[in-house]
Amino acid sequence: MTDRYCVLGNPVAHSRSPVIHARFATQCGQDIAYDAILAPLDGFAATVRQFAAAGGKGANVTVPFKEEAFRLCTQRSQRAERAGAVNTLDFSGDGIFGDNTDGAGLVRDIESNLGLALSGRRILLLGAGGAARGVIAPLLACRPASLFIANRGADRAESLARQFADIAAVDAGNFAKTTGQIFDVVINATSASLAGESLPLPTRIYAPDSLAYDMMYGKGETPFLAQARQQGAGRLADGLGMLVEQAAEAFLVWRGVRPETAPVLAELRAQLTS
Q: Which of 34, 102, 112, 248 is the most exposed place for a label (fewest CB within 10 A)?
């Protein structure tokens, strides 16, 4: 029988996950069906249980349900515990197992697809919400020279830094606190690009060969990447690769095989630029 999977979100119609996982399944010879399911804002848990009860094997979780998915799980991976959020559910065992593949997807996109080793780099992470929290431990595991978390409100950034202090020392503060510092990698984990906004970042924060990375993606440059180009970033990258890589990590959790991401990423990129 065909194994059923889905992505749960609200909204969810825009999701590219069904296309991505269909390509992965064909490539790996896996008999699966993958759908996008709109979960009511007040009915996420009921939707998950209904899908599992009907024979669903697993699900991806997107906004705004990742923290609720975390609470729903009966078992969680270590990286999900660290992230405080879950984007991958597995129903194949007893109960509900939760994982978070976002950080692994980000690191793999930067290091494998973009060819930039994060070890020894000075990293600036913009934002102190769930998107930022989900990638901090994987970034620290790469042993960067430093990690600075910057946010409009310093309190949230400083609180987040303290939560990961057992792994490594993390600096934090508001955007202005980065004045006078230089970074090799600047990662935007805020929703500013979705809102069409730029961030109040100091000038001259980018090293000559630096990478500006936006977790968001779309047709053309995001507002953050346009700003980064103007401020002297050496390279620009959006989050499409992260999307594909985190999906591949989820596929590995479910099916025990890692698909090749390059052809799928190339197809999605061509669709965005056509």
A: 112
Q: If you count them, how many residues does the chain have? A: 274
Q: Which of 57, 66, 177, 219 is catalytic?
A: 66
Alpha carbons 20 and 6: distance in angstroms, whole number:
12
3-state secondary structure of 206: strand
- Alpha-carbon gap, residue 56 to 5, rounded angstroms: 6
pTM: 0.95
For 156, left (φ over 0), alpha (ψ -120 to 50), or beta? alpha
In the residue annotation, 66 being an active-site residue is answered as yes
Check if the beta carbon of residue 58 is closer than 8 Å to that of residue 33. no
- What tens digit of pLDDT does each residue of 93-152 get? 889 999 999 999 999 999 999 999 999 999 999 999 889 999 999 999 999 999 999 999
